[in-house]
């Protein structure tokens, strides 16, 4: 166990930055575990561990085998894996999640060790809709509640449901998208927590309570208990929450939010991130504290955990759990074993415009950052990419002695710049920085520069592009930026990848 210590300066919020939406958390003794949505990326459902609710370390991915996760090429981006619920019951971890692709549906997996391996999925065809939740009452009966908000009794070990799903409570009258239900027994009540208003700027959290898990439910008179709609706060789209007790018995809420940047209407590029907020109880109702960019001083010891290495030399037999790929990752297209100390990608699909492109990336987790990789493209073409989806990405691609920058924005695909380079491996670089001053109402959130690093460490920039076109407000969808390596043709080898934050 790492020693407890106070970090230097305030603790940053979000506690898990970057594209980590729909957090679900559970506590087991002194340990906390948290799972997030992963959509079109493989492996699916990143899983994190913490001892203090503040510092989180990714320990694996729940759906890390083809037997657990099938995402066909026909599935559009922002399809796939939606909104898991993670719980611990009777000595096991249980996770229920929706695969929103053909042949998917609601799935249940279990593990005795949250780091894995997790079981093959049990299908629950009687569970309708998305955002499923599991809870057990005092006599061991398990209830599954889904977006809508409806509920059905279930045997989670078999996926068998009993009876017809019945409606519970759907939040404020007329509010759209009642979803993300979580049900808890706290004190003398059962509490039903939901999100409503949609996952955009009107997102919010509401709650109701009843004496049984099946209701009837009385709405909180102060609903929504959390929303930032109509405010100028730096964190927006707050919602899709889960409740948990801190080490001292106090209550906290994990939730998603975004950090828009630039002028009007504001663009968020990192996706929906996991934030933490304090909760107090007044008259048996939760009162949620402010969601800020720094957290109040913790009343319990902190365990910052290991510092993430910014460089990966691909010397391990398996990739780190933070690396993700598009829809699948077959060994014949992605391996660290062909050339020791290198990552080899073998192309299919032709470019990142294609849904089956061979890509290995990591979530962009900082507003400003730099990513670099040493690429050997003697046997093909490929390089470094900043990706939001098939229709929105910037790439710098090497092929033989040529390097070019390609911008894909909607239906437009343009070669922005092209340059000759010496034969042999080349270092490609992407830098995300603040837009130049003066800022105005039309200023974008950031600028993305793509270039070639020279032997002396200087970077020759080939293009500097407006970052707003790689934002959710432009592209739509539910994900955030992912920065990584890809192969467009043939075999492309990568000696190392380096990601460094530039904003602390």
From TrEMBL:
Domain of life: Bacteria
Keyword terms of this UniProt record: Glycosidase, Hydrolase
InterPro entries registered for this protein in UniProt: ConA-like_dom_sf, GH43_C2, Glyco_hydro_43, Glyco_hydro_beta-prop_sf, Glycosyl_Hydrlase_43
GO molecular function: xylan 1,4-beta-xylosidase activity
One Pfam family in the UniProt entry: Glyco_hydro_43
Ranges where the Beta-xylosidase C-terminal Concanavalin A-like domain occurs: 311-500
The keyword Repeat is annotated on this UniProt entry: no
EC number: 3.2.1.37
Family note: Belongs to the glycosyl hydrolase 43 family.
The protein's name: Xylan 1,4-beta-xylosidase
